[in-house]
User: Fold these one by one.
Assistant:
Number 1:
Amino acid sequence: MDSATSDRPAVRTPLGSSADNGLKIVVVGGFGVGKTTMVRSVSDIRPLNTEEIMTQAGQGIDDPSAVRGKTSTTVAFDFGRISLNAHTVLYLFGAPGQERFWFLWDRLFAGTLGAVVLVDTRRLADSWYAIDRLEHHGTPFIVARNDFGGPAHTAEQVREALDLSETIPLIDCDARSRASSKGVLITLVEHLHALSAASTASGTSTASATARKTTP
Amino acid sequence: MSRPGRDDDPDRLYTLTGGRSRAETDAFDLVTLVVSECEPATGMQSEHVRILRLCEHPTAVVEVAAHLNLPVSIVKILLSDLLALGRITARHPRMTAGAAQLPDTDLLEQVLVGLRNL
């Protein structure tokens, strides 16, 4: 997906001077599933790429001798930006679903509004880990099935393969299409709105209670 | 001749920050918007100069990191130095709920309006 971040000229488009509230939405998915394509489809700017350093200490190893001489590795991610109004800017992050990435989730994406899990129905197993981690972190999410023209599966088949609760929206999309990608974001925010309204009504502030499939 | 960047040895990166690997404060979110409060001056560290130029308009921490080609945590340290000196101001996200907390419906309605107008 490298090409997806480099085929437009690197012109900076500054935000207006009144911008003062940044929001985050994360698009999670396996390699090549179209995360950066989706970000590019709706972003006001050419997607940018950055990275964060993950040290062994960041993985919860307390013994400093265990990390001597070693080792930091980096996790790269792409992002784009949508100005929603004069004050509010939505940042969209394309995040790899690989295991090491989740060690950085809280540092990078605490306070995210929610997540889109982008899946390729030919490789559904690639999404299992991401879905599990989002549930673990209590991050509300929806699942969007990117159309790669593979064999058709019913929504029920996909739900079953992903062990996905009926309460979590599952939609089809074409990440190359601005309208379709915009629809995915709207579906996510409508889902968040419904969860938020429900939690306010029931007097609880936890999203996870309504978003999780299994309630203890 | 080489510029600090993502392929550098981490030791090289830490020289940019005086050996520190963590920002003193958790003041900066990825999407905290940074605004310069002064012009770059001679004698400033070159990364500080670049940040002050970038942030003439509000610029998120993650954008600063991408444009400087430096890891986010290194950029946060550079920013905390500039903040302590009053050379930048920081506009923090107003949605700061924890991982299990949902933003309020008013904010989400604003987001929906913005997205539908795209």
Number 2:
Amino acid sequence: MKILIADDELNNRKLMRDYLKKYAHCDMVSDGKAALELFTADLEDGELYDLVLLDIIMPVMDGQKALARIRATEKKFSEGKEGYKEIPIIMVTGMDSSLQAMQAYFKGGCSDYLTKPVTRQALLEKLQKFNLIPEGAEED
Amino acid sequence: MIQHDAMISNPAPKNGTLTHPYNNNQNYFNVDSFSRSFIDYSIDAVIIADLCGRIIEFNRSSEKLFGFIREDCIGKDIGDLLIPSEYGSMHKRGLEHLRNQENLMPKFLKRFNSVAVCSGGFHIQVEISLFLVKIDQEIYGVASIRDATAFQQLVRALNDTLLVAEQNTESKNNELERIKRSEKNATIALQTQQTVNHILHLSLKDCSLQEKLQMALDFIGKLPWLLHGENWLGIYLSNKHDNIFELLADCPEGKFPKQYCCEYASNDCSLCIHSLHTNPLLSVFVSPGNRFIEAEIENKFDYCIPLISNSENIGIFRMVVDETIMQGAFHNLMFDSIGKVLVNLVIRSHVDQALKESQERAEIANNAKSQFLANMSHEIRTPLNVIIGMTDLVLNTPLSREEMFGNLEIVRSSSLSLLELINGILDLSKIEAGHFQLESTPFDLLGQLEGACEMLAIKAHQKGLSLYTRIPMDLPRTLMGDPLRLKQIIINLINNAIKFTNAGEIVLTVEHDALCDPHNGPEFRVRFSVRDTGIGIPENQQQQIFQSFVQADGSIARKFGGTGLGLTISRHLVEMMGGKLQVISREGHGSCFHFSLPLAIAKEQPEQEPWMKPRRSDHAADTSAPLQERRILLADTHPTGGEIIENLLCFHGAIVTYVNNCADLQEQMDQNVHHPFDLVVVDETIKQRVSGLEQDPYLYYQSRILVLVSPYLTSKQFVLDGLFQKAVLIKKPVRQFYLLKKIQQLLTQPTGQTAEDPAIAINPLLSKSLQPLEILLVEDLPGNQKLAQDILVYQGHRVMIANNGVDALETLKRGAHFDLILMDLQMPVMDGFETTRRIRNGDPSEVGNPHVPIVAVSAMVMMNERQKCYEIGMNGFLLKPYQPHELVEMVSGFSKINTPPVRKPVKPVKPVSEIVLSGVEIDAETLRRFRQNFIVEAPNHLFKLHQSLQQTDLGSVVLECNWLRNMAEHIGANRLASHAIRLIGQVEMDAWEDAQSMYPNLEQYVEALVQHLAQEGVA
């Protein structure tokens, strides 16, 4: 399993990596632009990520913009390819998880969201939700 | 005869029968009885006289009228008797005229009113009829006289009556006229009043002042007493900024561009008159004492009414008035009321505007409060996220001790940043509440700033950035101020710069403020600036970032100013210190934050920081003299860093030769071999650009060498790759006085000795517990021979040198015993592979111990090279150029145990996917250059990257990866960028093994890419 983590805080990246390292290989980037680049490269190489975690407030390119660009890239890529399933993207927000804000993210194509502080439990539940790990996997 | 005039009217002859008076009787002249009776009994006075004026007849009525007795009058001259003296001469002339006429015939002469003299001298009004008669062939004059006094009086009375009557009539007419005028004025007043009402209502409209004024003029334009014509209405308002009046509204359907500026108007004039210009230039102005000025131009009255509010002239209302309708002083009242209502409109509009703005401000403040809370929430959650998550991991997952410590370290650093955040928020709230106190204490400016930079240099280096300080030497050392807060500001700014710069440099510059002369008084201004080569800030957001934490969108702060808290606090602190924090920035090129502070020069000295203490004695001994006239060769690839050091050295009198690459450095040293430099200062970066330089030229060169190294250096990395082994190292950023002190020490030492300072000299790395070894060094280059020999001998080993494989085999054949062979792989005559093979397969009589440990020493970095070495039975591999400690460690391994170090299996290398280059939006020539550049430089960078990975030097890895990433972007190699990004992601995590395992893929890709580009270039 391959997961892309985008967060401008090094410690947050470390935390997410530590949460996930048991289950997946993690690529870590500190801004949306780098996330987009990695995503695009792997998409073209046919080595798709299983999950993308996007922080919203990031330098260079923020999460919302990266989300839009990633979805656009996917759309372009999947043209004429049947059975392509959008890769789950989880927005990680520390600021505003109001309905209004989340609606904007969902409209932009995000699959789910997590509110900081993100607990391991919460993150693993999301992984289960997207069938990336089996139920009860976090127990061991 | 009474006669006034000699002129004789047309004759109306009355044939008289009068006879000559002297014929019969002296008293009664002889006429017929009829005539006699007529004369005697006539009511009118009848007087007959001859042409000489002698009275001949004077009847009874005459006696009655004049009061004379007939007898007294006969024969007397009529002129003397009856005619007033003033008419006398005229009477005589008349008689003379008659006398002179020939053939004078009886006739009517004239009838007239005159005055006659009565007895006693009274004058009476008389009416006289005068005619000529013929009596006895003689012509006489007859006057029939009637008293006219009473009639005259009556006529006069009548005339008087008439006059009175006329006067009465006239006054009635005037009254009527007045009433009519009043009616008209009342109508005008009513219309004006209505207009005023309309304009008053406009105040309530929700539109701009200009629109309101135009609507007002549309109403005013309907007033009947205005003369329509060209530009007949206009409102000019004073422009607060430059005191000129601007046309804000004009006549309905006016063709004027609004905002027309009145050229001559100024604020102290209240009135102006439209001149004859076709443009309504308001060209005549008078003092505010005159309320209205009018100019009559062909019946047009052009009025300019000042709009005065609180005795300040806010504008002018001008109009052209039809004077035939609007007359008298009455109009002033009308104009005044219109003027006042317009003033009201303007003022009201201003007040509304102010109200609206204050409402908006309140709303913004309210939003800012929510934004502040949202930002706070985000900033506090971010470290909390880590703290909670990491403790969760520690508590709930089985972790090794090391992992646990690692996690706890992260928890600690996040807690600290949370604390810092909370302190910041407290500071900010204190500042905003006005409870924040600044210290004023003497402090060492240079020390504070260099201290701050030293703290941040490691952080900068870890991002592959260079941090420099440019501080003039002649800055007063001890100043008064708040050193902690000043340091806080500088740290905030540099931290931000580091955060938002991905490649390049950050320079802290301190200088005298150009506007202030430092020698001009105890207080002067110092200008501070922190410049980076980061992402920059778009112009429209440059101001927001200073208040982003409290007011603006947190995402702006995140993008350009960290949390924004640091910048907000810094801005406040700078303001409290008497400066203003400003930013100059170009998006994509970097930012420069700068401010200038007034700082007093302190009389007392601050407490010295420990590192500064020696400076005093140095200073006493003399700081600058050792550098005076000294020749120093400075080599630095980095222009900013080089320039700073150069300036510093020059300031102290050194003669500096500056080179920026290794080749020039070599050339300079060669040229001056007979006249060596006193000192060579080399920045460690000088080497990064060169590969294949295996020879240490400095071993033969007796200059003292000083190397500037990055702050990341750990204890095991003191010496750089063996190339500068006898050098003194100084960490960057360089502290001025520390550098000077080191240079002084170096220059006063005898040549060839290394510095004593254990922290900066090569450590004797040999551990006493280790056995000295017999080592055969197979190496063709004398420089490398000497380097390795020096290091190993210094460690206590014995070294024998062979110049190539054949030489080595011969040495072995001679029966010399060796514990270890260091084998260069590329040699003339016989290379390392062949030599090794011959030793391993050789007969003990030929080669001694065929299993003697052999360590390959090679500058070749290809993985298969290394593999090949192991395959043919070598026991170790040392990459050139190596650091002395690497050589020492490698050799030590064979001193204790004779087994080769366990090597991790290299992860299978993924085959390089097809090289795909995407389009880049640059011209073909630039692209070609980029690609050429990449072909040439990529191997160097790859080499350096590999080395940094092995040395776990985070900063260098990031630097190299960023180079690759940038080049990838330039030449369109997207895949390369993603390789580099992934690698950075891992090394940042300290996941060195993962990173190292990623390297072969990256390397292979770069090699394939270089090949691809090279082929493409050939094709």
